[in-house]
Automatic annotation (TrEMBL):
Source taxon at top rank: Bacteria
An example Gene Ontology CC term for this record: cytoplasm
Presence of keyword Cell cycle: yes
Cell location: Cytoplasm
Pfam annotation, one family: DivIVA
Family, as annotated: Belongs to the DivIVA family.
Keywords for this protein: Cell cycle, Cell division, Coiled coil, Cytoplasm
NCBIfam families for this protein: DivI1A_domain
Biological source species: Thermus arciformis
Gene Ontology process terms (BP): cell division
Coiled coil (residue ranges): 29-131
Protein name: Cell division initiation protein
Length: 149
């Protein structure tokens, strides 16, 4: 059975011979009722505070869940970005190697071409020298014949 401050305040007791003093009982019951009222108010305030704290805990748990999901998503994105960066780095490395190979091929081709030109220039020089020497020999022979005449 619930007991309220009003129940305590207005409680009636049967009277008997040599019973308690009514005024003292009334004063005590009034004090008990006041204390009960204070306790009930405090209890209600604590219940309200508890409700607010429970709501705050629920909100914080929800925020924690969202934060955990955000962290998981950020970690996933970081892994994806890292993997993509590694793929891009590998692609750049392969492109650089291909470019290097192309430059080396072009340089080797240019070297072969230049060596061919050098060889042709040497052959042309030798041909020129032999023709020039033959021409000079022809002039010398002609000079010697003219000198003998």
């Amino acid at each position: 059975m619930d007991l309220t401050p009003l129940d305590v305040r207005y409680q009636e007791f049967p009277t008997a011979l040599r019973g308690y003093q009514k005024e003292a009982v009334r004063a005590y019951l009034a004090r008990v009722a006041e204390v009960m009222e204070g306790l009930i108010q405090e209890n209600e305030a604590l219940k309200a505070r508890l409700g607010g704290l429970e709501e705050e805990v629920a909100r914080l748990k929800e925020a924690e869940g969202e934060l955990k999901r955000a962290v998981v998503a950020a970690e996933r994105i970081a892994r994806e970005l890292k993997a993509q960066a590694e793929r891009e780095a590998e692609l750049i490395r392969k492109e650089a190697l291909a470019a290097k190979e192309q430059v080396l091929r072009e340089a080797a081709e240019e070297l072969r071409r230049l060596r061919g030109e050098i060889e042709r220039a040497k052959q042309e020089k030798a041909l020129f020298l032999s023709q020039f020497q033959a021409l000079l020999q022809g002039y010398l022979d002609s000079l010697e014949r003219l000198a003998k005449e």
